[in-house]
Amino acid sequence: MLRLLSLVCLVSFSQQINAQCCSAGNPASNGGSGSMAKNYFSVSSSYVHSYSDTYFKGNSVYDFDYLENTKFDFGLLNFSYGLSNKLSISSEIGYFINKSMDFTFIDATREASGLGDAAIDLKYQVANLKKHLASITASVKTSVPIGQFDQMDKNVILPIDIQPSSGSFKLKTALNLSKRFYGSKFSLNSFISTEFSQRINTDRTDYKYGNLYSFVFSTSHNTTKKINTGLGLNFTLREKAINRDIIVESTGGTFINVQPRISYLLPENFGITTSVNIPIYRNVNGIQLTNKYILVLAVSKGFSLKTIKPLLNNILLESFNENSFFVDGICGMCKTRIEDMANSVKGVKWAEWNLDSKLLLVKFEDDINTEKLAKVLSKGGHDNWLSTSKDGAYNKLHSCCKYRTEH
Amino acid sequence: MKAYTYLFALAGILLFGSCDKDKTTFNPNNTVPTIDSLTTNMSIIEFGSTKPAVLNCAANGGELTYIWEVDLGDLFIINDSGSQAQYTASPCCIGEKVISCTVSNNKGELTESIMITIIE
Q1: pLDDT tens-digit profile, chain A (407 residues)
Q2: Between β-strands B108-119 and B44-46, what pairing exists: parallel, antiparallel or unpaired?
Q3: What angle do the packed helices A332-343 and A370-379 form, to 10 degrees?
Q4: Is A156–B75 a contact, with Cβ atoms under 8 angstroms apart?
Q5: Could you tell me whether strands A67-82 and A40-57 are parallel, antiparallel, or unpaired per DSSP bridges?
């Protein structure tokens, strides 16, 4: 269940929120901060709405009539896959449904839409400190500007700040520390990241976005079996941009935002998450239009490799009639019980459960029924990749096997 | 049988749904574009000014299309032909900004640039 809820929480706390002036590219980071379990696959789709309407000079509101507001509606599609229990890969692609600026001095609106950036993110669990219920994950993310960068509106090439594509390759590195408490009901995450943008140097444009440094501190609480809530605090520092070798003074700054979030686990491993990102402190360089809020709504679905067999027909481990499944347990007695139960299922040649990884490696015949295997394990008291054990079955476990309280 | 149905449907889409050939006809008297002048009524403006600089591109060649461009700041076309535009900028654009106007027709294209300084 915990693992499923972590899938629901795929839309992690947004790691960047900027003043609107001269920002471009995908607005929010997605894909969670930890690595996924081996053979887990998830798809998430997010909708992001952003609205900016207040000018700031330094850290004070500045009365300035130029842009009435800027806003955008953005969609993000994310795929994540656990290559091993330590290494996972995810890819994302963003699309601006609408990006607009309303001007006050002239009755005009500037609009654009189209593909934003694509990204590939590799996450590696550097350390799993089981005694301390903590883990450290490092990640490297590369963004590629796949959208059209020089879009036009009414015979005018759009300026950089409203182009859907950032036009720039970006490299982001991050380190995430996660610690669980109270039987894993509550966890704390700290996330530090740096993002470097490549200088855009084309016939038309010579521009470099300011580098981005952020620190996110967030909580996550399994409020009920199906609901996970969280609160994030994001510190962001963006350097000034450079245009044709000249520093653009009114770009970048320091921002602090809070982000409450709620996730709900639906049947069939579907999950829904909503969050809002609200700035509580802004100290901009020069004068800039600043963000008022970012609203995120996301739907995700998690799969074990077996459940996407139709998609991955006869490839990967399936081709060797082997697969591994997550089964929860805590001790040697659990190991014996899980393996005995698995071996009793028709179609299983042999099964071996690993206490460290919590994975059950199964060698099977062609006609194995994995749903039945999951059911047998949950009836025996062990939560697994497909089903959660009922309290009655769980309570029958020996006291040393009570894995839920020990997590 | 099903495969043939799909093939026929696809052929139908390609036959009837394909784009028409470009039937644009150009005036034979068109010549390679030339730009007589690219001017502005203000070479220095304050950021956020409600009185933008007005730019005018005087060009010849026939059936001309005007494309305007600037890295930072806001340009708007203000006449039907597109030969005039107004420019102003927010605080992020303080400094010298190069505005380009590209004039094109079926005979060719030409770009001219002008500088406007944005001050506080």
Answers
A1: 444 444 444 444 343 444 444 455 566 554 455 667 777 788 999 999 999 989 999 999 998 888 888 899 999 999 988 888 788 999 999 999 999 888 887 777 888 899 989 999 999 989 888 777 888 999 999 999 988 888 888 888 888 888 888 888 999 999 999 888 876 678 899 999 999 999 988 877 888 999 999 999 999 888 887 888 999 999 999 999 998 888 888 889 999 999 999 999 888 778 899 999 999 999 999 888 899 999 999 998 887 765 444 444 434 444 455 677 889 888 888 988 998 998 888 888 888 888 877 888 887 776 667 788 888 999 999 988 888 888 889 988 888 888 877 44
A2: parallel
A3: 140
A4: yes
A5: antiparallel
| Residue B58 identity | A
Is the minimum CB–CB distance between B73 and chain A shorter than 8 Å? yes
Q: Does B87 touch chain A (CB under 8 A)?
A: no
Domain carrying residue B81: 23-119
Q: Is residue B3 part of a domain?
A: no
Identity of the residue numbered A398: H
Residue B46 placed within a domain: yes
Note whether B113 contacts A: Cβ–Cβ < 8 A: no
Residue B7 lies in a domain: no
Across the interface, do B71 and A243 touch by the CB < 8 Å criterion?
Answer: yes
Task: Kindly state whether B34 is in contact with chain A, defined as any CB-CB distance less than 8 angstroms.
Answer: no
Answer yes or no: do B67 and A205 touch at CB < 8 A. no
Min CA distance, A253 vs chain B (Å)?
Answer: 13
Kindly state whether B75 is in contact with chain A, defined as any CB-CB distance less than 8 angstroms: yes
To the nearest whole Å, the CA of A282 is away from the closest chain B CA by 16
β strands within chain B, DSSP E: 34-40, 44-46, 53-60, 65-70, 74-77, 84-88, 95-105, 108-119
**Are A246 and B95 an interchain contact pair (Cβ–Cβ within 8 Å)?**
yes
Strand partners, A259: A232
Domain holding B49: CATH number? 2.60.40.10
* CA–CA min distance B76, chain A (Å): 7
Nearest C-alpha of chain B: how many angstroms from A67?
A: 8
Give this prediction's pTM.
0.72
* Residue B1 within a domain: no
* Structural domains of chain A ordered from first start: 2-305 (2.40.160.40), 321-406 (3.30.70.100)
Instruction: Flag whether the ipTM exceeds 0.85.
Output: no
Strand bridging mode A359-364 / B53-60: unpaired
The residue with tokens 């950036």 is: A117
Domain tally for chain B? 1
